[in-house]
Amino acid sequence: MNIFRLTGDMLHLLAILILLYRIRRSRNCIGLSCKTQEMYLLVFCIRYLDLFMYFISLYNTGMKVFFISATAFTIYLMRYKKPYCTTYDALGDDFPHFKVLLPAAFVITLLINTGYQPWEFVWSYSLWLESIAFIPQIVMLNKIRLIENITSHYVATLGLYRFFYILNWFYRFYIDDFFCWTQILSGILQTGLYVDFLYYYFKSIGEGKQIIELPM
């Protein structure tokens, strides 16, 4: 494992912890999309189908279990656990994620994948689904426009995690002569969805602002 992969993993881990901290501390889910979390849970369950089939390392298994369980717990808080669920804006979180994102990822996977063997196709599908899973959250952020500090840290950390994964893939190309177009293109698409937000995030930090205001 290289430094880019490790940094990406730690940022991903940190993003989930920040989200849980934000929900528990504020005791509300205002401005958060449960539909994005549902997409992430699908991504992890699909990608880690081999969780109990192959053992690579304790680190690998531990991270997989954490991503699945922490995301499921987040959904539980937002959907069912009071007082958090009473503040979840189900009407505002109205992006048709199952109708749009699942088939969209499938179509892209048909065009760009690592192979048509069942496991190769499923793994590729999980990459493309993850690349667009954040769209419901983006829609909600653009509706509220004013984003408080902790939520902004969560979004920025999530965006930076995939950026470091892209660096990891380029590093592996130069060091290990390994290259995968599916990983690269899905990573670029996913990171691209965060670019606008990251610009205003770092701009606000530079100006010492506690609230990020997105343009209309």
Automatic annotation (TrEMBL):
One of its GO terms (biological process) is protein retention in ER lumen. It is found in: Endoplasmic reticulum membrane. It is a multi-pass membrane protein. It holds the Pfam family ER_lumen_recept. The chain crosses the membrane at residues 62-78, 98-116, 122-141, 153-171, 183-202. It comes from the Eukaryota. InterPro entries: ER_ret_rcpt. One of its GO terms (cellular component) is endoplasmic reticulum membrane. GO terms for molecular function: ER retention sequence binding. Keywords: Endoplasmic reticulum, ER-Golgi transport, Membrane, Protein transport, Receptor, Transmembrane, Transmembrane helix, Transport. Belongs to the ERD2 family. This is Er lumen protein retaining receptor. It comes from Stylonychia lemnae (Ciliate).
